[in-house]
C-alpha cells in the first residue's frame, strides 16, 4: 500500500497561522456607530505595502485590539470601532514584511493545492503526464478532447463547475486507464508476474494498493504526474505481488523494476509535500 497523504493532512500543511494582535487602550466609542451594534461591519480595501497593492478586509468588531489574520482568503483586519483608519493603515505598514511573507506562503500553498485540484472553470490549468493543458469550454466541441495544449470540453461558458468537473475527470480517467494499460504489461514482463486484475481507484489518500489476491489499484490522479512517477507507483505496487510489506526484500524488488526509484519518490514528496508511507 502506498499512501498518498494522511487523511487529515490531505493538502500540504498550511503555512503557520498568520495571526497577530496589537494591543490598544480601550477608548470610548464616539465616532463610529454601526446601524446594528452587534454585527461586525466588513469592508474591502487596498493598501500599498512596500509598493505592492494588497487587498484587505476590515472587520469592525467589539474587540479591544487590532488583529491581523492571513489565510487562503487573504488578509483580514479586525479592529475596534473607535480606531481610525489611518491608525490601522499605520499598523499595516509597520507589519508589512510579516504580512507580505504570510500572503506569499499562502499563495504558494494554494498553488500547490490547485496542482492536484483544479478549479473547474474555463481557463483552468490541468496537468496531464507532467504537461499543462488549458481547460477550454467550447459548446461547438463534443465530449472532451485534447487539441494541442487545450483540453476542449463541449459545454457552454457558463456551465456549472460540477458539470465541467465531471466531463474533465471522465476524460482524465480514460487517459489514466489507457496509460496504465500500456505500462502494467511492461512491468509484468520485468517482474515475470502479472497482477490478477487491476482497477482505477479514486482514493483520497492513496496512490495505489495491492491486495493479497494479487490485484492492484492505481489512483487515476497519477495521470497528472510525469510518466516516470506513474511508472514508479506501478513498479511499487507490482513489487507487492512478491512482498506484501515494505521490508528490505520489497525495496530490492522495487529497485530491480525501477532502479531510479529513490529520486522519483523524492519528486512525489517535493511536488505535494506529502510523505508517502514508504
Ligand atoms: Zn507499498
Notes on the structure:
This protein is α+β, with helices and mostly antiparallel strands. The protein folds into 3 domains: 2-113, no CATH class; 125-169, no CATH class; 171-272, Zincin-like. Helix content is 35%, strand content 26%. It has 6 helices and 13 strands. It has helices at 85-94, 96-116, 161-191, 227-239, 248-257, 261-272, and strands at residues 2-3, 18-23, 41-49, 52-61, 65-71, 74-80, 125-128, 131-137, 144-147, 150-153, 198-201, 206-210, 216-219. Helix 3 packs across helix 4 and helix 4 (227-239) packs across helix 5 (248-257). The longest helix is centred in the middle third of the chain and has 31 residues, at 161-191. The chain is elongated. The model is unreliable at 3-12, 23-37 and 271-278 (pLDDT under 50). Zinc ion is lined by residues 1-2, 236, 240, 246. The site of zinc ion (ZN) has 5 residues, from loops.
